[in-house]
């Protein structure tokens, strides 16, 4: 079934009785060519690109809950390509290009909106850093405009420009950045993978990884054993637990990150804004809610909910930046489990076990990475070689110390990435 304006019109006039489920609900087969553990954004996009780019359709995605129930459906939906370091820079640039043709490719409305992002800065030093980052973005072929204080005021007149502690000096504007509807991204990739023959198996928790003579042979699940010569661990905040099934200890800490949304308001904020003096980022959803977030909760946890002091901390930052937010009623908050790597950059790599692959370490920024992550992971799994855009995302950099990509220059302090 293809979606089109004509189809919507027809269904609207005939009681919406012709819509089919977006994907099948197959029982697991005893054996596949490849298995993907984790039905989040990265697992689903990997499955989609394995099938669409490499002709591998005898594969299954194994999801312990329901598709899109993890971080992919919990994030604040910001999409951008504004990284400064080699490695990250080309990867997120690649991802943004994939975003820009995603809806046509998937025939699915993921509501990708290039409404722009303004990263504010509040000191001369921060302006220099923003200028350097902007130049790196332009060198990479992406877009960046350095705004002065007046330029920011023209775009965002309601910010607190007179705040004595955090005066706004200007902002780095990235017009091609923006947002997308997060769960639609999971659904679009799931539908695209299913249409190409991939089995999406929900309520199927992987409980063990079978290894013989240094090579993976399959997995144990709550729905029985499944054999495969290629297995990818793509479980974000649960990566440490899943990799432990293969005897691996990952350089990953799992932390809670909360997000918040207010009641629906009339359009007020037509771009994404990030505060430069604290961790706070905000946009307005198409339904009108102000969607915002801040720091992780600062303790390792597998709970998908956060604590009140962090909520207070985030909202204080919001009040410092745009005091009008205090008039809005907070509707909901929730949490996700973040896979925090020591340098704040991800891992897309094979492991020391033949046929076993790893994709993790997305920290605060894995939503925007979903297209490129799946694209590069599929390339690695199908060809055995890393994709050039993800060649630096190696696991062994944490052992050797070579090739670390510490974008924020914060050392291995997870909360600061
Ligand atoms: C509050 C919040 C805000 C965020 N904001 C942004 C943002 O604005 N922009 C941005 O780029 N990024 C953002 N992120 C980060 C981004 O959402 C994540 O990096 C990304 O979604 C993680 O990858 P994923 O989608 O594959 O993870 P998930 O959706 O978590 O997928 C992993 C899946 O693996 C499954 N799984 C785990 N263990 C097993 C097992 N044993 N067997 C089978 N399945 C298993 C889980 O159930 C889960 O569905 C945010 C994250 C959070 C939590």
UniProtKB/TrEMBL annotation:
GO biological process: tetrahydrofolate metabolic process
GO molecular function, one term: nucleotide binding
Keyword Oxidoreductase: yes
InterPro entries the UniProt entry points to: FAD-dep_OxRdtase (IPR006076), FAD/NAD-bd_sf (IPR036188), SoxB (IPR006278)
Keywords on record: Cytoplasm, Nucleotide-binding, Oxidoreductase
Primary localization class, coarse: cytoplasm
Database matches in Gene3D superfamilies: D-Amino Acid Oxidase, subunit A, domain 2, FAD/NAD(P)-binding domain
GO CC annotations on file: cytoplasm
Domain FAD dependent oxidoreductase residues, every copy: 33-380
Protein's UniProt name: Sarcosine oxidase subunit beta family protein
Provenance organism: Rhodalgimonas zhirmunskyi
Subcellular location: Cytoplasm
